[in-house]
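Predict the 3D structure for this chain.
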Amino acid sequence: LSNHDRSRAATRYGLENARVAAMLLLTLRGTPFIYYGEEIGMTDVPIPPERVVDVAGRDPERTPMQWDASANAGFTTGAPWLPMAADADRVNVAEQRRDPTSLLSFYRRLLRIRRASDALRTGTYRSLPSPRGVYLFERAVAGERLTVGLNFTATRRRIALPSDRPALVLSSDPGREGLAGRDLVLEPHEGLIART
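Done. Predicted structure below.
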């Protein structure tokens, strides 16, 4: 979703979709690549003309990693090659490591789920019918079937899961406690993984 030549995912898709984008990245087939700072929601940083390093305009997505709330976000004791983000005192690894509801904690849960799931690591992929703005698909291997629903919109969307008794594996919405049946509503900017 991100690399050193493209605007950061949180800037392109909005911070409200950062968790949904993470779930997309870590549940699709293939080898996921997490560009540094994506796991804490780093955004592009405005670069004043006198600080420009890359004449092709790629500096905003190349600012230093934000490790903590110290000077230069703990990246260096010297002068960083690009300015730090204005929110580095809040958006950094140290702050998010302490918060179980942070984006970093969400990434860590997603990575644990991916490592433990044969369906997510090596399973087949099948798209499922879904409403506009929702991406619904299934990953499966013998003995394990997971359905992933991703709502990239700012409105609630109704979906149908391919099982009458789904079990919630993970939701980006900390308020979701479980699944009551095949038909469910995805909240705005919600992603979920269900065992189906």
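The helical segments are 9-13, 18-27, 93-97, 103-116, 118-122.
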